[in-house]
Amino acid sequence: ARDHGFDRMVILGDLLTYGIDQDEVLDIVQDLAENCQAKVVLGNHDQLYLDLAKEQREYYARLPEWLRESIDRTYDRLDSVGFANRFPWIESIEQDSWLFSHANPWTYGNWRYLYTPEDAREAADSLRSRGLFAGVFGHTHRRHALSFDHVGSRLGDCVALGDDWTVETTSLQTLVVNPGSIGQPRHQDLRSTYLRIEQHGSQTMGSLIGVAYDVDSHLRALRSSHFTDQTCARLCRFFEPTS
Question: For 46, which DSSP code?
Answer without folding.
Answer: H
